[in-house]
Amino acid sequence: MLRERACGLQAGDRGGGTVSALRLGTRGSALAMAQAGAVAKRLGAELVAIESEGDRSSAPLADLGGAGVFAAALREALLAGEVDAVVHSYKDLPTTPLPGLTVAAVPKRADARDALCTSAGRDLDSLPEGARVGTGSPRRRAQLLSRRPDLEVVDIRGNIDTRLGRLDSDDPERRLDAIVLAAAGLERLGRLDAATEVLSLTSWPTAPAQGALAVETRTGDEKLVAKLEHRPSRLAAEAERGVLARLEAGCAAPLGATALFDDGLLFLSARVYALDGSAQLTASHALYPEDARDPAGELAARVADELLAAGAADLAPLGGGRP
Questions:
Q1: What's the chain's Rg over C-alpha atoms?
Q2: Which residues carry out catalysis?
Q3: Tell me: the pLDDT tens digits for 287-300?
């Protein structure tokens, strides 16, 4: 496993003595370094780049064990004491907690929407019939086929620049007419201008916790990063991830979820798709957080149980049974 110290900052004074800056672990991709860099700046931390199995392999995520493959190496380094905290894309973090580690802070969430990037400045509805659209997400595949059954959806992996490069490729086998990416990732890399359409969360819900970061520490060290916490972002992300957990759905499940605050109410909506986009089920509920002991968990349970009762486990590959 490759670990490379990067972006060293000046040592700080903690507890009466001069010590090394807080060591903040992150994946080494350009996107991961960009999003972790903003966190490091707020903490006065030093970034430590850690390579994961997911970064080394071009295989589909489902074959590697799901999005959690990106988190495993970071957590290993944290448990080994090689770093003091790690930054995850919250959507890539397994929903089952790991003993000894705690999500100590969820910073303010970025844009949760998906963005369509095309080679000719088109939106989704104006793509030509049979257009080739790239994505590595079963959820996005189902959404594309639900809206445009005529599209040829191509499975792709790689960083954002690699994916965008396929829009202008001279190789007809690699060339794509469009790709779907997270708007937050494009924005963090200064590439939001590549988006020709940003898709509405109402009609196009995204991966649970998309756009949110999770800063994890060893249990007991939460105060190291407490200043980063943004409670509304945590509640929204945890409500969305709660649906994922209750449905026992992994990265292969075509599930989208959206939570947001409006006039003090926390709203949560989740949608499960058939893999081929031919059918979908939606459930939505809301509550006032102050009226619940565990607002995110209670809201997620209502939404997930309604989906299961409506037949979501028969529609999509979910691990959960009926309530």
A1: 20
A2: 92
A3: 999 999 999 999 99
DSSP 8-state assignment for residue 288 = -
Q: What is the pairing mode between strands 3-6 and 46-50? A: antiparallel
In sequence order, the β-bridge partners of residue 35 are none
Q: Is the sign of the CA dihedral 147, 153, 158, 161 positive or negative?
A: negative
Cβ neighbours of 147 (radius 10 Å): 14
Q: How far apart are CA 157 and CA 146, in angstroms?
A: 22
Which amino acid belongs to residue 94? Answer: P
Q: Determine the 3-state secondary structure of 291 from DSSP.
A: helix
288 token code pair? 């006032």
| pLDDT tens figures, 256-279 | 999 999 999 999 999 999 999 999
Pure H helices in the chain: 30-43, 53-56, 61-64, 69-79, 138-147, 160-165, 183-188, 231-246, 295-309, 312-315
- Report the predicted TM-score, pTM, of the whole model to 2 decimal places: 0.88
Q: Are 78 and 101 in contact (CB under 8 A)?
A: yes
